[in-house]
């Protein structure tokens, strides 16, 4: 009977096992004897498959490498044994002494000595595979002693995304790397006879559905046909990274190129070798390469070979995604922890402060890699860098005095949070009158749009279990999650009671979620000074010292149950930029944990700030062109969190701001197209952004980018028919209206002059509003002037006396359901007579509230006043539509 061994134990034994054929099975470093049940290639005979005479992969419960003799194999490899690295000016003498050779340039003595030393290292550290970037002429002579990867070089440029191509100051060798040119830029600029150029034109013709005008809009060109594009050489030498359409086009073409390259390379190899594993290129997991090209490359490869410099918890979200994308085993072919030395001033990846810390990380990561290998991987290849792994020109004392490095886990999660979105909805148990209810499909749309994280608000007095379903749904979709605590307005009057409640709440939340994924981040306090709005002004803890007392009391409580949890910390006030630099410091964050550490030593902190600058623009009181120094204001504000991050060596993210989304919107369209949606509004009541001519070209480019992805009609929903103010005339001034198929109007007309109005008053108000407007004439003239379809995409009125003219949400409601019904009955009757008005959509906020628990004018006025469900207005609307 074969011995029984679990996967994790096998992984541990494999890491400590012999380095293959001819090497003793003992690891002095890890102190473990290799199991006797290993074949000559290092495969475990306790797990057997069909022998084929070659290495291959097979999956039962998990993926395995299988040795030529048919035994299970997990690879723990090493890379970068490159002979020239051992003969640099700074390390030549040390290596000559170490290897016992007189001259490193004497190949006859140097190569065998280097090989002997290398095989000893493999034995001591348990390496059993030779990865890429190795001098095989050294390690394989006279005969191979360890299973190895054989590189085959076909082309002079790798598979590079724009992120990979950019200039980098932090590379393995420590020198700056200039920017490079990838496939899309290189091939699109060739002449008409080049096959690559013809392929590019063919791809663009498909993307733009043979509409050269839409292509020209994206690139600002004047090609008359796609043939003219084919004939143009050097027409676009650079990529405009802010142009979302161009980025999409480059990715589409990169997919086509990669597919052709892999197919051709594999066919060439298989023509002569039908047996060995084909792993393709080593794709970069620290950039967007894997997510971009893996769906294409995995169609051709046997294994996913990638490179990623990070600890397991940082790699894990990517591994989750890539394992689903490829359905293949993964090999991390290049991984290491680096440190700064005189010869490597700008290393890549997680940077240790000194050799001691580097050794601790390596040993700690070894255990994590065992877990990784039991879940996804069949191999891990670590980097051996001569002159740094074993010899250093930096003294231990110098290294110990360096400031702490930024923790790679916090950095990685911060990067994902920085590509996130706020989902401000009510949980299934809350039934909030002022928020849309949560639905899992919202997360699907967020994921499809390309976001990597989502932010939920949690209410201080709610049971933590209230939000578990939302959080788990997001995590299951590979989204990082930040939950932000929303305090109680009563704390402003009773700050001491509020402090106790704040600490108690975080104790409950921390305990409840302590075993959740590290992808769950806790944002301690959203805007302490803005706990609620009263008379249009924020109310909360205005005293900065008091706000910091809350944070100092809560953090130690959280750390008792969540010592490694990432915490987001913003400043007092409204989490402003300047305040982050002023208050999130050791002088104000004075908490101490049980081990005596505090803010400086806490590697699990991320700085958070909110951006409301320029305030007049972000809060819709002025157009951007009326603020000539807005760029300087933004730069000055952002300088504070940047300075904070540099000083305290902690990540920082902007976790609340407003922006127009382009590339994310395009990603959603594929979902819309598949669902056979006929029409789509690309924006809603954006006011100055829609009317300012400064943004017209951006809107037109956005629309041109949408057209190839969405065959339905495109429209925009503009404010209008509300009153004589400029903001209510948005529909008359949409700068990009000519690019749309239809226009929608949000109409909340102010009709009666009197509080106690009847149907006749509402009817008269359409012809002469309290401000003297003839709304019917305005709408009729607009439709005639546009010559395109017009809809009232929102028509609404609150259920109070006098309608919206007398609506004041800050005061008790005076309901009049008969007036509410009269508004809809009269308005729909009037609008039915407006020639060429295509349709009307009733505003029913929110649609899911009607009939739910708590749907009552006293307990839920916000939901009740705008909802038509169960009111006379519902029957009035039904009667009008039946006409």
Give average pLDDT, whole number.
79
Q: Name the CATH architecture of the domain at 410-656.
A: Alpha-Beta Barrel
CATH topology of the domain at 410-656: TIM Barrel
- Using the CA coordinates, give the radius of gyration: 32 Å
CATH superfamily of the domain at 410-656: Glycosidases
The total count of helices amounts to: 30
- Report the CATH C-level class of the domain at 410-656: Alpha Beta
Q: Decide which structural class fits the backbone.
A: alpha/beta
Overall shape: globular
Query: What's the β-strand tally?
Result: 28
Low-confidence stretches: 1-35, 370-375, 385-407, 658-664
Report how far the terminal alpha carbons are from each other.
83 Å
Trace the largest sheet across and list its strands.
15-16-17-18-21-22-23
How is the biggest beta sheet arranged? 7 strands, parallel
Helix content: 25-40%
Quote the beta fraction: 5-15%
Please give the structural blueprint.
Layout: H1 7-15, E1 26-27, E2 32-33, E3 44-48, E4 56-59, E5 63-66, E6 71-73, E7 75-79, H2 92-99, H3 107-125, E8 129-130, H4 136-139, H5 162-165, H6 183-188, H7 195-207, H8 212-219, H9 226-231, H10 244-270, E9 283-284, H11 289-297, E10 304-307, H12 312-326, E11 330-335, E12 338-339, E13 351-352, H13 355-375, E14 377-383, H14 396-400, H15 408-417, E15 420-422, H16 440-448, E16 453-459, H17 468-476, E17 480-486, H18 495-512, E18 520-523, E19 532-534, E20 537-539, H19 544-561, E21 567-569, H20 577-583, E22 605-610, H21 615-618, H22 630-648, E23 652-656, H23 663-674, E24 679-684, H24 688-691, H25 696-706, E25 713-720, E26 742-747, H26 759-767, H27 775-786, E27 789-795, H28 817-831, E28 837-842, H29 861-866, H30 872-882
Parallel strand pairs: 7-8, 7-14, 9-10, 10-11, 11-14, 12-13, 15-16, 16-17, 17-18, 18-21, 21-22, 22-23, 24-25, 25-26, 26-27, 27-28
Antiparallel strand pairs: 1-2, 3-6, 4-5, 5-6, 19-20
Helix pairs in contact: 1-13, 7-10, 8-25, 10-11, 11-12, 18-19, 20-22, 26-28, 28-30
């Amino acid at each position: 009977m074969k011995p029984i061994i679990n996967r994790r134990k096998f992984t541990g034994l494999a890491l400590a096992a012999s380095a293959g054929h001819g090497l003793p099975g003992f690891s002095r470093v890890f102190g473990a004897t290799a199991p006797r049940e290993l074949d000559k290639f290092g495969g475990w005979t306790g797990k057997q498959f069909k022998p084929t005479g070659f290495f291959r992969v097979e999956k039962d419960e998990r993926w395995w490498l299988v040795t030529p003799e048919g035994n299970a194999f997990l690879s723990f490899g090493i890379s970068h044994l490159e002979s020239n690295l051992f003969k640099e000016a700074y390390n030549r003498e040390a290596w000559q002494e170490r290897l016992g050779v007189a001259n490193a340039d004497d190949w006859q003595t140097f190569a065998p000595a280097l090989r002997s030393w290398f095989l000893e290292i493999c034995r001591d550290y348990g390496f059993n595979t030779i990865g890429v970037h190795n001098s095989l002429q050294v390690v394989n002579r006279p005969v191979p002693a360890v299973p190895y990867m054989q590189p085959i070089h076909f082309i002079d440029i790798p598979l590079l995304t724009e992120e990979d191509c950019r200039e980098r100051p932090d590379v393995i060798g420590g020198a700056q790397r200039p920017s490079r040119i990838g496939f899309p830029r290189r091939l699109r600029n060739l002449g008409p006879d080049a096959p690559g150029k013809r392929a590019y034109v063919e791809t663009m013709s498909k993307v733009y559905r043979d509409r050269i005008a839409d292509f020209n809009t994206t690139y600002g060109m004047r090609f008359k046909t796609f043939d003219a594009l084919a004939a143009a050489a050097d027409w676009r030498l650079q990529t405009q990274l802010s142009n979302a359409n161009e980025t999409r086009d480059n990715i589409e073409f990169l997919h086509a190129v990669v597919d052709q390259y892999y197919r051709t390379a594999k066919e060439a190899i298989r023509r002569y070798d039908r047996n060995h594993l084909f792993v393709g290129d080593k794709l970069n997991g620290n950039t967007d390469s894997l997510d971009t090209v893996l769906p294409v490359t995995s169609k051709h490869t046997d294994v996913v070979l990638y490179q990623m410099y990070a600890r397991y918890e940082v790699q894990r979200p990517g591994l989750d995604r890539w394992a689903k994308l490829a359905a293949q085993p993964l090999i991390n072919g290049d991984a290491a922890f680096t440190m700064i030395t005189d010869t490597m001033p700008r290393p890549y990846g997680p940077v240790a402060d000194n050799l001691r810390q580097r050794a601790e990380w390596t040993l700690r990561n070894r255990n994590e890699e065992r877990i990784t290998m039991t879940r996804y991987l069949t191999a891990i290849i670590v980097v051996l860098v001569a002159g740094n792994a074993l010899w250093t020109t930096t003294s231990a004392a110098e290294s110990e005095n360096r400031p702490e490095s930024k923790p790679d886990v916090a950095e990685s999660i911060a990067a994902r949070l920085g590509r996130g979105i706020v989902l401000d909805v009510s949980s299934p148990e809350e039934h909030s009158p002022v928020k849309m209810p949560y639905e899992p499909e919202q997360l699907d749309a967020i994921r499809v749009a390309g976001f990597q994280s989502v932010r939920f608000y949690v209410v201080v007095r709610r049971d933590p279990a209230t939000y578990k379903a939302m959080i788990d749904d997001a995590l299951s979709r590979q989204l990082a999650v930040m939950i932000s605590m929303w305090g109680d307005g009563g704390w402003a009057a009773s700050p001491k009671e509020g402090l106790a409640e704040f600490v108690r709440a975080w104790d409950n939340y921390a305990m409840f979620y302590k075993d959740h994924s590290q992808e769950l981040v806790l944002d301690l306090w959203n805007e302490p000074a803005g706990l609620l709005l009263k008379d249009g002004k924020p109310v909360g803890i205005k005293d900065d010292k008091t706000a910091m007392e809350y944070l100092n009391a809560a953090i130690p409580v959280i750390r008792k149950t969540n010592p490694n949890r990432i915490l987001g910390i913003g400043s007092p006030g409204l989490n402003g930029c300047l305040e982050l630099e002023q208050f999130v410091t050791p002088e104000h964050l004075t908490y101490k944990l049980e081990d005596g550490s505090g803010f400086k030593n806490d590697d699990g902190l991320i700085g958070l700030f909110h951006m409301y600058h320029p305030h007049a623009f972000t809060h819709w009181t002025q157009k951007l062109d009326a603020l000539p120094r807005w760029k300087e204001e933004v730069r000055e504000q952002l300088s504070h969190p940047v300075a904070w991050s540099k000083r305290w060596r902690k990540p920082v993210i902007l976790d609340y701001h407003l922006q127009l989304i382009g590339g994310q919107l395009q990603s959603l369209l594929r979902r819309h197209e598949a669902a056979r949606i006929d029409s789509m509004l690309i924006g809603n009541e954006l006011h100055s952004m829609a009317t300012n001519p400064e943004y017209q070209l951006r809107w037109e480019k956005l629309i041109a980018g949408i057209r190839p992805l969405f065959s339905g009609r495109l429209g925009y929903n503009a404010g209008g028919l509300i009153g004589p103010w400029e903001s209510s005339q948005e529909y008359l001034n949409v700068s990009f209206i000519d690019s749309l198929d239809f226009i929608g109007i949000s109409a909340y007309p102010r009709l009666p002059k009197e509080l106690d109005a009847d149907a006749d008053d509402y009817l008269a108000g359409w012809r002469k509003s309290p401000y003297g407007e003839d709304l019917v004439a305005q709408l009729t003239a607009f439709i005639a002037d546009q010559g395109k379809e017009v809809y009232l995409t929102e028509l609404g009125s609150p259920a109070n006396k006098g309608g919206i003219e007398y609506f004041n949400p800050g005061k008790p409601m005076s309901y009049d359901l008969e007036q509410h019904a009269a508004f809809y009955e009269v308005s729909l009757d009037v609008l039915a007579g407006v020639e060429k008005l295509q349709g009307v959509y009733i505003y029913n906020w929110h649609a899911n509230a009607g009939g739910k628990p708590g749907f009552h004018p006293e307990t839920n006025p916000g939901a009740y006043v705008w909802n038509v469900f169960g009111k006379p207005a519902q029957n009035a609307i039904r009667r009008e539509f039946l006409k």
